[in-house]
Amino acid sequence: DKKMLLKAGVDKAKYLISVCGNDGTNAEVAVNAREISSKNKDKKLTCFAHIFNPQLCHLLREREIETGQMNIFKLEFFNIFDIGARSLLIDYPPFSEDDKFIKSQPHILIVGVGRMGESLVFHAATEWEKMYSKFNKKLRITVIDKIAKCKKELLYLRYPKLERICDITPLQIDVNSPDFQCADFLFDENNRCNITRIYICLDNDSLALSTALTLNQFIRNQNIPIVVRMISDTGLATLLRAEDKNKSHFKNIYAFGLLERTCQPNLILGETKELPTEI
User: Fold this and answer.
1) Is 250 inside a domain boundary?
2) Distance CA 49, CA 5 (A)
3) Which of residues 199 and 279 earns the better pLDDT score?
4) Which of 50, 78, 106 is the last residue of a domain?
5) Which residue has the higher pLDDT, 142 or 3?
6) Total structural domains in the chain?
7) Residue 120 pLDDT
8) Residues 114/151, Cβ–Cβ less than 8 Å
9) Residue 260 vs residue 112, higher pLDDT
10) What CATH number is attached to the domain comprising 212?
């Protein structure tokens, strides 16, 4: 409430970052901060409010731009899954800038299309359009999820031009099922693996790592990167940084610690300066 914000010194602060576990709470913090700021004409406050749903976050950002900002108060919305997807694709690019690579038709596999997986599709498509639209080819993306077909339709509804940029193949498979464990989806009719990058975006770190290991046993000798989104760089993620990794079962598997790579003031402050390119 306002009393708590005043006790925390929000009337003297330059920045306020609200990362409560509920979107409504973060919105309430922002509203209260705006009211406090309106009574303090000598101090400008920028409030950053976390919104868990990436699509809602984008819509709220646009609304703030359209409605304008007070000179003494600025409200910005951010989403760690959106920041995380951008950071992940910088660390582990979905395709090469080499023209020779483009001729081989990049093919991305994303396992788990939750908040992070959806943001990965969005930003990979954005990068593809910016860098390779001249090739007049669609980016191939295969998504695996329990409700993959529904996820695909939602992606096309939320981002209308996505269908023009990407060819999304939805595979409605449970990662614990025999269909997934045999991994036939990795290979074409000639039994060749045409996947060039794999991103695992499951909510459970243990399940995510076991999923990566399952896929890796089929393609270990093909040097196809498998990036596993994990909550943190600690715990299970430390297994993927072993010194003898090249000789281990974890070869080609890389951990991406979401919290370490997103919950940093410089990333949050920088993230909200520009809206993602809408596609």
Assistant:
1) yes
2) 14
3) 199
4) 78
5) 142
6) 2
7) 96
8) no
9) 112
10) 3.40.50.720
The helix or strand, by DSSP H or E, that contains position 229, with its residue range, turns out to be: strand 226-230
Stretch 150-168: mean pLDDT: 92
- Averaged pLDDT, 174-180: 96
pLDDT at residue number 142: 98
Please identify which residue in the block is written with the tokens 């715990």.
235
Give a three-class secondary structure readout of the chain.
Answer: CHHHHHHCCHHHCCEEEECCCCHHHHHHHHHHHHHHHHCCCCCCEEEEEECCCHHHHHHHHHHHHHHCCECCEEEEEECHHHHHHHHHHHHCCCCCCCHHHHHCCCEEEEECCCHHHHHHHHHHHHHHHHHHHHHCCCEEEEEEECCHHHHHHHHHHHCCCHHHHEEEEEEECCCCCHHHHHCHHHECCCCCECCCEEEECCCCHHHHHHHHHHHHHHHHHHCCCEEEEECCCCHHHHHHHCCCHHHCCCCCEEEEEHHHHHCCHHHHHHHCCCCCCCC
Question: Could you tell me how many residues make up the chain?
Answer: 279
Pair 92, 67 in one domain: no
Q: How many CB atoms lie within 10 A of CB 24?
A: 8
Tokens 């920088």 -> residue: 270
pLDDT tens digits for 8-39?
A: 888 888 888 888 888 889 888 988 888 888 88
